[in-house]
Specification:
This protein is of the alpha/beta class. The chain has one domain (2-159): Rossmann fold (3-Layer(aba) Sandwich), CATH 3.40.50.1010. It contains eight helices and eight strands. It starts with a strand and ends in a 5-residue tail after the last strand.
Length: 164
């Protein structure tokens, strides 16, 4: 199944455990394919480089460049479709829609209200990480105690200690 994630979902998935991270695990397991464009990768890199994320990167002993290498290893790239004027409130959001159209995605997973308001675009379902997981996996997607972290262009499994 072809899926596109917006930058807010990528940030949540890469830096925190939770439903967005489970989407990355599904891609790692080969159950879904995440598509991306170079402009979306550039935006992700710029957002990860913001000072507010520096402490999280330091705690995880990783860097923006390592994370980007891991993302590149996980996704398939496509050329964005030529679209504009889809989201007049935030024209930058059009590039996420353009990626989903070009990838012939079944889902665009987003945390952005402007995008979520669309609900659907050219047959592409648009929803939150929870919407996507509930619709496609009947809510049966179990959170793993394993976190996948990108490092040196590879994804490493990091098991958490179970709490008593």
């Amino acid at each position: 199944m072809r899926v596109v994630l917006d930058t807010s979902v990528w940030i949540s998935a890469l830096l925190w455990m939770g439903l967005p991270h489970r989407i990355l695990q599904l891609a790692y397991e080969g159950r879904i394919t995440i598509y991306m464009t170079l402009p979306l990768l550039q935006e992700l890199s710029e957002v990860l480089a913001r000072p507010k994320f520096a402490p999280l990167l330091l705690r995880r002993k990783t860097s923006v460049s390592e994370i980007i290498l891991g993302v590149v290893a996980l996704v398939k790239f496509c050329e964005p479709a030529a679209l504009s004027g889809i989201i007049p409130e935030d024209p930058d959001d059009d590039m996420v829609i353009a990626c989903a159209v070009a990838a012939n995605a079944k889902w665009l997973v987003s945390g952005d209200e402007h995008i979520l308001r669309l609900g659907e675009f050219q047959g592409i379902r648009i929803g939150s990480p929870r919407d996507f997981l509930m619709a496609e996996f009947s809510g049966k997607v179990v959170m793993s105690a394993t976190k996948f972290l990108p490092t040196q262009g590879r994804w490493l499994k990091i098991s958490k200690q179970a709490k008593a």
